[in-house]
Amino acid sequence: MPRELIYADNAATTKMSDVAFAKMLPFLQEQYGNASSQYSLAMKSKRAIEQAREQVAVGIGAERNNIIFTSGGSESNSWVLSSVPVLFGNKGTHIITSGIEHHSVLRACHALEQKGIDVTYLSVDRVGRVTLDNLKAAIRPDTKFVSLMLANNEIGTIQPIAEIGRYLRDKNILFHTDAVQAMGHIPVNVNELYVDFLAASAHKFNGAKGTGILYKRSGISVPQIVFGGEQEYGLRSGTENVAGIVAAGYALEENISDMRGTANRLVTFVQATIDGIRAKVPNICVNGDPENRLPGIVNIAFENSSGESLMHLLDLKGICVSTSSACTSGKDEPSHVLMALGLSEKQAKSAIRISYGKYNTMQEVESVIFAVCNAYDKIFRATSNL
User: Which residues form a coiled coil (predicted)?
Assistant: First the structure.
């Protein structure tokens, strides 16, 4: 018999919602018209896109015409960052981000530096938080733009985005947040966060891969990113991914409807995992903010161990966890996020990320705890005999 899979890597991607899958299917088969055509079959696709746009807008407290659909969170982040030279010019422009951002932001910032834009990378405290005081200290007369993620994808730490956003709005500095890991898991309201741009990705909240979201506040411009037709307000031309967009709307709506209940369950799962592993392996280090953290993510470093070895031993038992962001896996480098927290390279390489989602059960959590402790014991005994 095939082994039973336990999926505990929901920060990398999520299982698609049954509701979202059922809603998208007709647009792959019966209702396959091009939304830019004029006949009735095509108009069904057009209406479905606009319904999804409304669902997303309602979900984050925005207006419908503030929502642009993209191919994913990385595209949305890259689009906003690449707009900086167009909005402000290459020279005499200073922007601020943090050292623990997703690589779609960090590498976009590196590209901006090559164009002459000055970038400040804020440090974070031991739990991975940017403080308003540090941000204030970094602001200069030529600061035009700030990009800070809402919640970190490796350690789950939630940033004080509303506090920072309110301050930046008063300073007339544009503010972008990468909400890819947060959206659909904690309340997100663009007005309460005081953001001008927000990026999200449907596959992180039980939608389909290949569909992203960009929120752009009214009155703020971004340059056209794809040339051709008039899709997405003439900013991103090309035939729309109707099925993926439809799934995104329903997946977000569904997650928001039971957000509190799901979050409570996931917090219980994470605490049980920490307590259960610590009972057998007392010297673990739990990374991230214990108070301001996404409900389903826990990042744990193990003394005298290898996170990669742990991950592979768990995989042999049919349990999926990760050592870092899925976007950087496969590289023999310590996590830039964990290093920014002050961990040594050895400590950073010993960590695994366990991330639960709404389809996990307490029975699976207990299996994860048992398997992690057994795997660590094997590694510890093997290294002790060397």
Answer: none
Confidence label for 331 from pLDDT (cuts 50, 70 and 90): low
Phi/psi for 154 (5° steps) reads -100, -40
Domain 18-257 architecture = 3-Layer(aba) Sandwich (3.40)
Secondary structure in 3-state letters for 338-368: HHHCCCCHHHHHCEEEEECCCCCCHHHHHHH
Measure the CA–CA gap between 372 and 361, rounded to whole angstroms.
17
The pLDDT of residue 299 is above 70: yes
Q: For the chain, where are the alpha helices, taking DSSP H only?
A: 18-24, 40-60, 73-82, 84-88, 103-114, 132-138, 161-171, 190-193, 242-257, 259-280, 307-316, 336-340, 345-349, 362-384
The DSSP call for residue 156 is -
CATH of domain 6-15+259-384: 3.90.1150.10
206: amino acid identity, one letter? N
Distance CA 52, CA 45 (A): 11
Identity (one letter) of the amino acid at 117?
A: I
Contacts of 356 (CB under 8 A, 6+ apart): 8, 10, 266, 269, 270, 296, 365
Q: Are 251 and 16 in contact (CB under 8 A)?
A: yes
Q: In whole angstroms, give the CA distance from residue 129 to residue 359.
A: 29
**pTM of this structure:** 0.95
Q: Which residues are tagged catalytic?
A: 327
pLDDT of 381 reads 77
